[in-house]
Design brief:
Strand content: 35-45%
Radius of gyration: 18 Å
Number of helices: 4
CATH topology of the largest domain: Diaminopimelate Epimerase, Chain A, domain 1
Order of helices and strands: EEHEEEHEEEEEEHEEEHEEEE
Largest sheet: 18 strands, mixed
Distance between the termini: 14 Å
CATH superfamily of the largest domain: Diaminopimelate Epimerase, Chain A, domain 1
Number of strands: 18
């Protein structure tokens, strides 16, 4: 089975083509492919292009623990670059169906920067989901151990909890690794949740540390950057055009009047390869 590997600002994915039957992608299969000792190693597996009745192509996405998830900004940029490299698309916009909705993607003229129209963001608790009465989950309190956090919950096709930070000394990988898993699995979030620790730098820039659901600490996340930028905008901390500084680099987010989000950032190809059958024995 052939594969290609890419990274988006340090967040790496393996892409496996649509010629591979969908039933191949069991929990055990995805776990082995993502394993950094016994497989290729990655933050996830992308399977496509698959046929779609709603869009030009369909994509399925798998976490390293084998679970399937709804949407990934980095994953979509990587998949779009893969489609371009394989000759499926050129520079024209293309639509991609994911379990988290349909997005529009465009390869920019330098062949490395990819723009994704991520769809509308929402703070509605029943859409994310967040337990409790139906509401916009904006600037609420959440106690974890000895800390009380201010958070906003967002969906951009997948769920996010954006924690507002006021001490730059706390905005570290170790802090995210300590509190991220406790927030991810908090009972307030019945489907678990991605977590971003966010601090505004000025009206045009924010910085985040990321804990991804079913993945762990990660260097970059497109959907996390969308959620954090939208939160900063809704709290009045930033303008609608925001540069999100993640550990792996910078992701540019534009927020439109109708609350749709556009994300632009580079993708780098790592390699092509072939998985051997004995990898799964």
């Amino acid at each position: 089975m052939n594969f290609s590997k890419y990274h988006g600002l340090g967040n790496d994915y393996i892409v496996m083509g649509g010629e591979i039957p969908e039933e191949t992608f069991t929990v055990e299969f995805a776990q082995r492919v993502c394993d950094r000792h016994y497989g290729v190693g990655s933050d996830g597996v992308l399977h496509g292009p698959l046929s779609s009745e709603k869009a030009d192509f369909r994509l399925r996405l798998y976490n390293p623990d084998g679970s399937e998830f709804e949407k990934s900004g980095n994953g979509l940029r990587i998949f779009t670059r893969y489609l371009f490299d394989k000759g499926f698309i050129t520079y024209d916009p293309v639509t991609i169906e994911t379990p988290g909705g349909i997005v529009t993607a465009t390869v920019l003229p330098n062949n490395r920067d990819i723009r994704i129209d991520m769809g509308k963001a929402s703070l509605r608790s029943d859409a994310i989901p967040v337990k409790g009465e139906s509401r916009d989950v904006l600037n609420e309190e959440l106690q974890i151990d000895d800390r009380v956090f201010r958070f906003t919950a967002v969906t951009v096709g997948n769920p996010h909890c954006v924690v507002l930070m006021d001490n730059p000394n706390d905005l570290t990988a170790d802090f995210a690794k300590k509190y991220g898993p406790k927030i991810e699995t908090h009972l307030l979030f019945p489907n678990r949740i991605n977590v971003q620790f966010m601090m505004p730098l000025d009206k045009d820039n924010i910085r985040i540390e990321i804990w991804e659901r079913s993945v762990g600490y990660t260097l970059a996340s497109g959907s996390s950057s969308c959620a954090a930028a939208y939160t900063a905008y809704r709290l009045g901390l930033c303008k609608p055009n925001i540069s999100v500084h993640v550990p792996g680099g910078i992701i540019h987010i534009d927020i439109l009047r109708d609350h749709t989000l556009t994300m632009t950032a580079p993708v780098v190809k790592i390699c092509d390869g072939e998985l051997q059958d004995e990898c799964f024995s």
